[in-house]
Amino acid sequence: MKVLAIPGSLRATSSNAALLRAAAGVAPAGTEVTIYDGLGGLPHFSPDLDVEPIPPPVAALRALIGAADALAISSPEYAHGMPGSLKNALDWLVSAFEPIDKPVLLVSASPGGAAHAHAQLLEVLRTMSMRVVDGGGHVFSRAKLDASGAITAPELVFALAAGFAQLAEACAAGENRA
Which of 31, 87, 132, 148 is the most exposed place for a label (fewest CB within 10 A)? Predict the structure, then answer.
């Protein structure tokens, strides 16, 4: 299973990027996780720009999504919502065919919790016809990682392992529908 992992934060020391890197360690055997680091390079979405030829960073994102079997998104919460940069990326995908029916594991994590952003993201991803595996909203910060980057909170390790297992099941179910 090839998973494109999208951290929803532009921060250089993003807890959500660290969470996705750590999550790769609890993914089922044979899972290849690629972390997308181009969120900040996407132009501001405009329908006027969503025509051929589309901007190269957008074409690259769509190609990565098309090549992936599934997505994993981990997003912080800013002012009770998803970060604007993540929403911008999702807006670029609305008219694309690559994410349609794509299984996606959604995990939202912020030091104060991420319930509001998580609910918004669930709504947007489902509206975009993605098959969402709900990994939940979690209270999380880099403090829950050890020096090697491994997650030290057992409940979060369990939740991520369960989420990736469900993601693998969703991929297998999609293959059986074809």
Answer: 148
Phi and psi angles of residue 12, each rounded to the nearest 5 degrees, phi first: -60, -35
C-alpha to C-alpha distance for 146 and 135, rounded to whole angstroms: 22
Is 11 in contact with 40 (CB distance < 8 Å)? no
120-158 residue pLDDT tens: 999 999 999 999 999 888 888 777 888 877 788 888 888
Burial class of residue 15, CB neighbours in 10 A (0-12, 13-18, 19+): buried
Cα 96 from Cα 173, distance rounded (Å): 22
Compute the distance between CA of residue 25 and CA of residue 47 in angstroms, rounded to an integer.
38
Query: What interhelical angle do 84-93 and 56-67 show, nearest 10?
Result: 80
Q: What is the pTM of this model?
A: 0.93
Structure tokens at 150: 């491994």
Q: Return the CATH number of the domain spanning residue range 2-177.
A: 3.40.50.360
